[in-house]
Write a structure and sequence with these properties.
Distance between the termini: 75 Å
Shape: elongated
Radius of gyration: 32 Å
Structural class: mainly beta
Number of domains: 1
CATH topology: Immunoglobulin-like
Order of helices and strands: HEEEEEEEEEEEEEE
Number of strands: 14
CATH architecture: Sandwich
Amino acid sequence: MKKLAILFVVLAGYSVTSMAQVSATASSTAAVITPIAISKTQDLNFGTLAVSPTVAGTLAISPAGTRTPTGGVTLPAVTGTVTPAIFHVTGLGTSSFAITLPGSITLDDGSSHTMSLGTFVSTPSGTGSLVGGALDVNVGGTLTVTAAQAAGTYTNAAGLQVTVNYN
């Protein structure tokens, strides 16, 4: 009987220990911030240019709107409209964001003549920081012009797409 009592005490001790439970509680939070947004406020315009009948060239426009011709491209006295593309970025306070520019796009005159537009540059470059929840991103690029490029107005129907994302 004594052995049975000891066995009962031992088993009762295990059952109390094995059924003991403890728990803790954690709180959960989420902070929803103002979404980042981008809108175009000005198109990229290279103005007028002339090209040699025998020498190809390029025409670069900086984010500040300065044009630089090379090779057979020259700038006539009548400049036309010359502007960098400008994108207005809005979001949360002074948040930083990444800027992604396209590799290249093709412009055409609607009659099967094309020019390549690439080597895009922006100010700010690569990343930017909002000031009071907003910042303008200016974008320039380099237009590649073939020798004897057909005269006409060249556009890109798909547009110049700039992407921004919070860092």
